[in-house]
Amino acid sequence: MFGLFKRSKAGKTEEEKRAESMPLTKKVQFDPVPLENVKSELDADLRAVLRYSPVNYYATKDSYLLCVFYYNEDHSEIYMRLEYCVNDSSKGKTRFYSLDRELMRDILRKFGQSI
Question: pLDDT, tens digit, for every residue of 28-40?
């Protein structure tokens, strides 16, 4: 009876399980971009993320595009997911994208970070 009101969650894909099992994560924020645009741009070309403008989280907490990297110690396997956040609450997510070390390095350089 109590199971009647539970939401049924679709099973996670193997890629989602693999990404979430990575030991390290890193988060950076971009200026807000509509999630539909982000999905179509990244599906066409993953390097489109380099066109987004970095933003300081503490300056604009009301809305931003959160980029989360999931990776292992030697950066041999890296996954990225973008989330549209409003008032620190997720309003939608992209799928996981697998990327290489060079693209992650280029993205983090926009924020003054290096790997």
Answer: 999 999 999 999 9
CA–CA dist 111, 16 (Å, integer): 26
Distance CA 12, CA 10 (A): 6
Per-residue tokens: 7: 């939401």
How many residues make up the chain in this entry? 115
Q: Which two tokens stand for residue 46?
A: 């993953």
Answer yes or no: are the C-beta atoms of 85 and 65 closer than 8 Å.
yes
What's the distance, Cα to Cα, between the start and end of the chain in Å? 51
pLDDT at residue 44 is higher than 60: yes
Residue 5, classed as helix, strand or coil, is helix
- Are 111 and 54 in contact by the 8 Å Cβ rule? The answer is yes
Q: What are phi and psi of 89, to 5 degrees?
A: -120, 130
Tell me what pLDDT residue 93 has: 95
Contact 93, 87 (CB under 8 A): no
